Amino acid sequence: MSLRPGHPLWPRFLPTPVVVNLATVGPVGRIRKAPGTWGSVAGLLYFTVLFAQVAPWVLILWSALGLWLAVGICGEAEFRLNLRDPGMVVLDEFMAMPLCFVAWQWLPEDWVARPWAVFLAGFALFRLFDVTKPLGISRLQHLPGGWGVVVDDVAAAIAACVTLHLGGWAWVAAGM
To answer: What does the pLDDT look like over 109-119, one tens digit per residue?
Structure first.
């Protein structure tokens, strides 16, 4: 087995079907049209079901664990599929999506009263930052292995979260 610098060892012991199915979030990554968007939709559902009502520190802790797992699985899937950041690998979007909503409960009260609007805005911002990769996000894809697959999505999610919060503060400052 060849050495893969910066790549965790633990996923190497998993069978290929397990690695690929985790990396594609089952059938989600196999949707031919816009698999990254569908992975983000699945990530939004994951957030709303498990994390929408938890404290920000809980979301951050669980996200860090999930992203660590995603780095290993996505990097291993890249290696086994012999493709660089394949579109069907959507575990990165799935795990990064909840970070868009860190401390969403601290947004203006009238925003929090309409969580569907906050979640839709966060989703749209995440996709915008993930697709366009501004602010140096595109350079993060050059990190080795699973790090390059996952970290750009984390940066896109953080940019979406910051944008949501700045929008909330601007909303309050404008007296709306």
So the answer is: 988 899 999 99
- Cβ neighbours of residue 55 closer than 8 Å, sequence gap 6 or more: none
Query: What pLDDT sits at residue 1?
Result: 42
Query: Nearest to residue 25, comparing CAs of 4, 11, 2, 46?
Result: 46
The answer as to whether 22 is a domain residue is yes
SS3 115: helix
Question: Can you give the residue range of the structural domain that contains 138?
Answer: 12-173
Residue 2 lies in a domain: no
Write the single-letter amino acid at 92: D
Residue 38 forms part of a structural domain: yes
Q: Is residue 4 part of a domain?
A: no
As for how many domains the chain has, the answer is: 1
- What is the pTM for the complete model shown? 0.93
In terms of Cα–Cα distance, which of 75, 74, 126 is closest to 98?
Answer: 126
Name which of 124, 68, 78, 3 is nearest 60 in CA terms.
68
CA dist., res. 111 & res. 77, Å (int): 39
